[in-house]
Amino acid sequence: MIHNNLSVETPSTLPSKSFHDAAQAQQYLVELYAHATKYLRDRFADVMANGPTDVRYRAFYPEIRIQTSSFAVVDSRLSFGHVPEPGIYAITVTHPELFGNYLKQQISLLLQNHQVPIVIQYSDTPIPLHFAMIGEGAVTIPHDGASDFTLRDVFDVPDLATTNDDIVNGIAKPAADGTQPLGVFTAQRVDYSLARLTHYTATDPKHFQNFVLFTNYQFYVSEFEDYARKMLADPDSGYISFVSTGNAEITTSDGVLDEPSKMPQMPTYHLKRADGNGITLVNIGVGPSNAKTATDHIAVLRPHAWLMVGHCAGLRNSQRLGDFALAHAYLREDKVLDDDLPAWVPVPALAEIQIALETAVADVTQLSGFELKRIMRTGTVATVDNRNWELRDNSGPVQRLSQSRAIALDMESATIAANGYRFRVPYGTLLCVSDKPLHGELKLPGMASDFYKTQVSRHLMIGIRSMEILSKMPIERLQSRKLRSFNETAFL
Questions:
Q1: pTM for this one?
Q2: Structural domain boundaries of the chain?
Q3: Which of 46, 317, 425, 485 could make an SS bond with 420 (beta carbons 3.0 to 4.6 A apart)?
């Protein structure tokens, strides 16, 4: 029989170590994490085979810690890579192998900017059993009542009370000993999102690339696969593989992709480069709730940029079906982020993203200067939570849209941009006008079919071209100061 006052057994303790080398520090994180998770997996297998004993099993996440006492000025050109003031800073870490390049980059900047060692050690935050078992294939953790013992009496389980967005929302308080957060996500928060990503996208998080395209239509997927196959046929493209739903992966242009038995909620596809700077396409479907869900979880992977390339309603009579709308401001009436990022918070356009998008439109359409205005309008994009907004009394909504000078309306773009702002991920939006409900041009089946055939390929190519332009920028240039607050974490 299991009691709450069981003694706690932990794995043999690996020592705290100080490092002046980022690669060595990251490798020790891998060692600590592997040691802890193996212990939990082994104990779980033993309990399932032989039943529980009078022991509770617990292992801890590793953490990165730095202490500095100097107010010395660091390289002010960087918006990240340094702590704001003297003190102790720490962050728990999960899957340090998956995040290897990111961790080495961030730790290297700390070492360079502060000239003090990085300490790698175990934290006092337990690893929930469910998260330790991620990647263990067919292993199933029983729900309450499915086994002859209560799981949470023997192992730690996910605790949503401590898995939150307090750091990114700017409301986190220092720990009791004064330690402040070093990164924007704790290990539990990252593990939670990695599990959700696998569920929603049906692809392993390891396949996600640093540049993410979001769309709200499945029509873009086949075009993306066609482009991927062309790139795999070109040995100079730099792309090495294409991953489809269910982790089906091909490395040649004629590779066969198995059809999944069922589609996930957000089908996701990855055109990969060896350095991770390829392109991921996520079909989030329709609606701000989906847009928030996808970006909430993808954000923990710390992508270099994400863009929305979906369809929208054109709000100006001078626009034509197929024209592009480049967002330089957002009218947020999606409501899903109001508790995390109030609507009064401005979501600014980011110059590097805007330039890349406009350059890509010019490259793909072969138009430039004043001629580009024939097919692209720059202005405010409104995002609403009601797909059939035009069926209601239009006096109120239309007045707000007119006063905001909006040029387009959709259900995802402002949500994606606002979450990019909140999570410090560079963002942008280029939409394609698919209907003009205020001017009698509704999206009807026949018209929509012809529209999609002619516009999807070009629009997707603009999104891809934008990402390829951005991938050539150093991350310190792409990571705008507009995304960073007064008292910011050192890690991106």
A1: 0.92
A2: 7-187, 202-483
A3: 425
